[in-house]
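Case 275 in the screening queue. Each case pairs one protein sequence with one candidate compound; here the compound is alpha-D-ribofuranose. For every case the pipeline is the same: read the inputs, emit a complex structure as tokens, and attach any notable structural observations.

Predict complex for case 275.
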Amino acid sequence: SLQGKQTKMIGMIVPNITNPFFAELVAGVEQTLADDGYRLLLCDADRDSDKEHRYLQMLEANQVDGIITGSHNLGLEEYQRVGLPIVSFDRDLSDKVPIVTSDNYHGGCLATQALIDAGCQDIYFVGNPSKTGNPTTKRFLGYMDTMASAGLPSHTARSAFYESPLAKSMAMRELLQSDRKLDGVFCSDDLTAILLLKQAQRLGIRVPEDLKVIGFDGTKLVQTYLPELATIVQPIGDLAALLVKLLYERIADPDKHLDKNSYVMPVKLLRNQTI
Ligand code: RIB
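Case 275 output:
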């Protein structure tokens, strides 16, 4: 691709563009690419493998110089078949593809410890830890280990990432209405935390007096519109910059041996009014 055949186009595949985390990541990637004279072809795979397949074919047909993907409905083989330089975010594709993530495990520990420090004892994790290696699962493991170290029992309420916000809200409403002891919730992302806060408000449960809540992501959007939410902040701008840098390296030398394939970026606890 260094023989004058570059199209100066990069493809990016995300799981869900309406989520502010992915929107902010895309904005960061697009800005850096634009500064360097590249154009971005954005594909919202919508967690649909057929769609992801068609998008991959489209990127191939457009002869993009490389691909950034965070949606892995498709396995490594499909990506390898396309034979383009590729970098991945959030989800592991293979040890041959560089992956950039936040320190999800440590974030899970920080969030749980913040609830414990605030006096919580009956803390639920709300999220959908499923596939090994996905970000939610790492957050969940951080939660489990921190609860165990504190000698506290752990509890999980699954709220599938794939489910609609309505289904999530109903599940959380049931949890809040049940007679289970519950004084703190670690939600696997901020949007889930917002749904939970809404249900608590409807039920007259006071936050943080009766219930403490912390989320994960810390997007600018949520911090602007719900500045009281405690959360774990992912360094979204840094994630975007690193993804682009690694992709440029792959484009310059696609066969370069990877000394390191996993890049884990630090997260920060944002203490706030909900804890
Ligand atoms: O809110 C979207 C979530 O999906 C983010 O936390 C991101 O890291 C991914 O797991």
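Case 275 observations:
- The chain has a mean pLDDT of 91.
- Residues 19, 21, 90, 135-136, 189, 191, 216-217 surround alpha-D-ribofuranose (CB under 6 Å).
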